[in-house]
Amino acid sequence: MTEFDSYSSNYRDLVTESVRASGEPSEYFAAYKAKYLKRKLGTTGILSVLDFGCGVGALSEQIKLEMPEARIDGFDPSQESLDRVSSRLQAQGMFSRDLDLLPGSYDLIVIANVLHHVAPGGRPRVIRCAFEKLKLGGRLVVFEHNPFNPLTRWAVSQCPFDDDAILLKSREVRKLLLNTGLQRLQRDFIVFFPRPLTFLRSFEGELARVPFGAQYACIGTRTA
User: Fold this and answer.
1) Which CATH class for the 2-221 domain?
2) How do residues 28-44 score in pLDDT, each as one tens digit?
3) What is the mean pLDDT of the chain?
4) What's the rounded Cα separation, in Å, for the pair 207 and 191?
5) Residues whose CB falls within 8 Å of the CB of residue 41, separated by 6 or more in sequence, listed in order
6) Which of 17, 37, 83, 120 is the most buried (most CB within 10 A)?
7) What ranges do the domains of the chain cover?
């Protein structure tokens, strides 16, 4: 995925342009995910987080805001992207293209909108690599685009670095987590309403089982 090197300088602008139908900038979606993690998992006992496929650190920044006591590390194969991770994040954690250099194991690992860039045959290896970095009792959270949402498919078609995207159904992600040995699986559909319907967003938590959100989250726990 080193092709992301060429997009690192204007990554956030490209994402914002591709999701313009939502009325929100790219930061909104990173903040949404971080708030979801805090709401769903809480912060107790989460002292180490790995942003797996962190890019320029947009999600890492938001997770740090929601979980200020946690150390946030990042992994990404694009060195150009890692070079753009904020100095504040770099000072409190490690951001590397070499997964083996990252210290220890993690209470929480997040793989956000990464798997659709990975060829289907390579996806089990990605989940296995993340699984091996989880502490016993640690959680792995995968966020992905929902292929059943037409606006999501349109946004992906407008994004230059999504040319290689092969969207995954949530059941494929659940199967990947199960086959890797993760247990206590949970799935939520998220991001339902664009900015003009902001007044409805407080109801999104009640729609978590409705399979038409723009994205979804799958959570698994390492129990052995």
Assistant:
1) alpha beta
2) 999 999 999 999 999 99
3) 90
4) 10
5) 108, 139, 141, 219
6) 37
7) 2-221
